[in-house]
Structures
1.
Amino acid sequence: MARFPTWVVIALTGALSLSLAGCSSTGGKRAEDARKAAAAQGRAAVNTPRWTFAMITHSGDGDTFWDIVQSGAKQAAVKDNINFLYSHDAQAQQQAQLVDAAVDKKVDGIIVTLAKPEALKAAVARAGRAGIPVITVNSGSAQSKAYGALAHIGQDESVAGEAVGQELNGRGRKKVLCVLHEQGNVGHEQRCAGVAKTFSGTVENLYVNGTNMPDVQAAIGARLQADRSVDAVVTLGAPYADTAVKAKADAGSRAEVDTFDLNAKVAAELRDGTLGFAVDQQPYLQGYQAVDLLWLHKYNGDVLGGGRPVLTGPQIVTKDQAATLEEYTKRGTR
């Protein structure tokens, strides 16, 4: 029988103890989670065919909201072995042409936003005639089923607006300036109309050119200077919240600034009290679920919603949740 020096026996015993500790309920789980994460990095979790899905949105250039939507979609695409294509155009006719181009490529599924539904109607119908399943996301929930989409994934904008009106009531606000940064966007109109439906005070809509931030700041500032009774400003997108904060300072206003949607700047300003609250529609979830549902439909014939929207919001977030949200925004998932 082989004999080992005393120091070897001690070393082996220590190593065994560490190994057993690593299999404990906490250490072992962490190690296993890390192993699974490493194994799944960049690899599909399924062996289904490599289908191609195209997402076409109404995003303009540099809109961080859509970066988050894409982040979710790309993560699901990796898991589901999907070749994911993304394109966008803020002009509705050009967006429709991008849908037509995806149909011409004979993609296996299309995800599309309907911010200006009528302009997209013919293109979505063409996809249906070609046998390409369509899911709508983010905007156009009222038209989705009529246009032949499998499902709509997003936030009901009217319901979200109503939640904002109720939150403002609870904060004792009396007059709200609702800032619309894209004329003709049905979702924006629904948001402000929803605020007006439940808010017990007065709501005034302010239309601004969302492609020009200095103009947005000037327009909000001028309105706040002209009407000192405005005690709340609601913007309809995260990038516009900080602009409204600057406009408030320029005007010497004491109005609370609140916003729809979330990004890192909004999370930071919630934490320090610069913003009152935000309405999160969870864009990461919109992208992720849209790709996942298309995959489920192709693989298993599944649909969700029963003809009604699959809601990803609204979630009212305040200073209390800001610290956690900041961590999520840094990794691009909120």
2.
Amino acid sequence: MTFSPSSAIDFRSDTVTRPDSVMRRAMAEAEVDDNVIGTDPTIAALERRSAELLGMPAALWTPSGTMANLIALSVHLQRGDRFLAPRGAHVLTNELGSAAWLAGGMPDPLEHDAGPGRPTPETLSAAIGAPGGPYYALRTSLLCLENTHNAAGGAITPPDEHAQLLAVAKQAGLTVHLDGARLWHAAVALGVPPAALTVGVDSVSACFSKGLGAPVGSVLAGSPEFIEKARRMRQMLGGGVRQGGVLAAACLVALDRVDELAESHENAARLAAGLTELGWAVNAPETNIVLAAAPDLPGRLKWLEELGIRALPMAGRVRFVLHRDLSAADIEETLHRVKTGG
């Protein structure tokens, strides 16, 4: 059976959502001014609210999460500095090498020996190595964490493990940046405020377009001094926008919907259970991402596309991402198509 594009069920990402009428109205009615000059009131309101939610003194709106991370690394690193991140982290595999090319850092991955997406404190300590050393040795200055870890299936780093990693990093004198693109998901799944997952970090990024429905936008938060430097770097990278309040208004509406992410988590668990019953090998999702093993990954993706089920590859597996535009009925229809082959 061939399915029309209009009947496709889209699991490619939680970024494929479209702003609803409430969000579009907020965008249309947003109070705006020139954000490069620094007088857009809606962006300012978003930055204040985001900083408070993330437990940071200050925040900066950015057009994308990739730019937010690049700004953070550019501020934190000196050229040639080594930085550590869990293997498969977005800053290592999905940002086109900008951490090395533009921020000037030497990336080094950490294995997931504490669980999906998470290194143990011992692994981190061994990677940092002993202090001192000859002048020509690599200088390790930054730890980059990711919560949730996308390529590990939306895996969460809980507060106690976060604290242990922070303790090792700080003891060694490292700066810590947290890629919290889906931090809202982790907070909802754990039933804690987002700020409980940022304790001790020097900077954190978070995204408004991953599952929350906003069309554009991320935020970078940290100290006032860090944000002052970040604002200059954003301008250097072309991220200064003028009447950006139109976009920030959508982000403010998105923040009102964080608690609704729980529905995507429930749908992810429902999809994973159904696929398991059908003999698929899948992860037990902690948030909104289901990873399914496939011996012939291109073939499996093509077969799903023919069934009107859209998905993308991630870490050698089929990635299904649940989001606010997919309902429980969509999950049941997906499982029916997979079971019957159409």
3.
Amino acid sequence: MTYLRPARQDTGEQAPQGARHQAVPRALSGGAVMALALGIGTGAGPSLARALGLAPSSTAARLIPAVLVSLVALTLVRAAVRHDGHRVARLGFGGPAASLRALLVGIAVPGTAACLVFGLGTAAGLLRWSTPDPGTLARFLVTNTAVALLLEALPEETTLRGYTWTSLRGSFSGPLSALGTTAVFLLVPGASTAVQATTARLLGAEGAPVGIVPEGRPPADHLILLTVFGLTLVAARTALPDAPLCTAIGTHLTVLTVNRVALQGDSRDAGWSAVDQAAAAPLLVPLYLSVAAAAFVVLGRMAARISRG
């Protein structure tokens, strides 16, 4: 599998032999940074938007928490990487051309997998679609891309598939690093709700309920989906040798967009959605994620063979 490539290909440099005992605390700190950033951003953002007189549903009001999350996460990760004596590029960033190629691969692979699986689901009668509204859909795609990139895709990939993965991969095998990174990923949402509630209350607002999964969702179903998603993101992170973190960012952004249009489009006013979903329809999401993960594994093997000459 892609996860089994040497650590040097995944991280760009090998951790010192004596640094193994530091890998787990550093990996956990990546998750802590994301939880802190997400909690502060979503806790303070609405209060700041109200202070500026912005309507809660406006794009500007939604962008404020997103900007805060990225600002806090990227600042803290940059400081952590420099404290470790490394460059930020070690996390998986690259030059402009390589980053663009990796981003496009990250968009194309899950996008194609989703079209294939949802198309088969539609043909099988599991989904029925509304008539698309091109203008509304285009506006949704623009605003959702901006918010999702800054609130989730960029900060989560930088902290988790960037700092956490790199910290583990320099000392542990690929499979262990993948499982460890995904385990930290599962801890972030619950920890962030505690930070969010505390931040909101300090600002005189009402905090959201604290819990390991969003309110109203079955915990087991949600955690299974997050596990599949997390492993898919690691597969994306390890698929390409150049700017690999951008592949994970593109994948994260694409999956969020596809799911919000296809399964939540009506409630999010996306201009298009699956209006009639059979009970088995939610299973299509982990299915297309698994297809995307398999494709990334194949790409990783091809890249490894090419690099060996």
4.
Amino acid sequence: MTQAHPLDVLRRRGSEKWAAHPDDVLPLFVAEMDYPLAPAITAALREALERGDTGYVHASGGGAKEAFAGYAADAWGWSPDPALMRTATDVSVVIVEALRRLVEPGQGVIITPPVYPPFFELVPEAGAAVVEVPLLDDGTTHRLDLDGIDAALASGAARGVLLCHPHNPLGLVHDRADLASLAEVVERHGGFVLSDEIHAPLTHAGRTFTPYLSVSDAARAHGIAAESGSKAFNLAGLKCALAVAAGGPMAELVLGLPEEVTGRTGHFGAIATREGFAHGRDWLAGTIAAIEHNADLLGRLLADRLSQVRYRRPGASYLAWLDLSALGWGDDPAARVLADARVALTSGPDFGRQGAGFARLNLACSPEVLTEAVDRIARAAAAG
């Protein structure tokens, strides 16, 4: 099981997670992990530095596409064609550049809040309009509102769907049946699905991730996937993602992306992505085990010390969606948690109106840090 760096090492990092707050704050907000890099990645980057290999990325992607394809085949039984992929700076760039070619100015794109906050900005950046079709919640689990998506597409309010899969902040792994139904709905209306699958390699044991492009012929015809190793291997600062198609017009769109989209990929990002998917799988398994341990630990800690807080264990990634509304700390309890407990969480309302009373917590830390964070919040709650 992967072990997190100690706090004294982490506080020497200069990334957003560790630079945004003073040292008395435990930062459990932005999606960065506290674990060391996979040894294969560290070795490859060190070797590149030693030979001065710090130039521009090659148009081939430096093996990142082939490594991802191999990983996808082994992990998910899906064999995407590297010839139908293009690299890009990050998943957000894949989303914006694809949407610019999929929608006319002002056309609607469906998102499913509570959802990754940049979705609310990426859609208008591409010239489109956000159409919200919130997830359904039966009190036990969330799922896509397929009838709502159908209605939005049928009315012309929306042209397609920006899917978060697995879903951030819920850690929801959409099941194959719902994805197949989504593909049928979208195909019936001549729409598209752009599937952000950045958290997919972090799917937990006992859950099955189904790539959208593997669901059906319809999904392959109208879908594009945005893939990356940045969350799985903690590589966000190195800048590499993949736009993936399965043929037809969507392959033409992906392969027709401007050369500058590929050219802005980080060379180190491509190296690290290749090494992670090709040679970092044992490290990834250990990291998922550490995250799963913390997901279980959080449930026990909350039951013991903050029973008012509701928490559904995620099925993927290292993000926990906490309902803090019973504490009476208003629509944005993360602000109170930061002020009174000195723990930085991500504000729930950033994920949409459905996030009022919620906050997102990053589980990719040591058990000791997680325990201290819950203790601090519990003390703040007891103090009123």
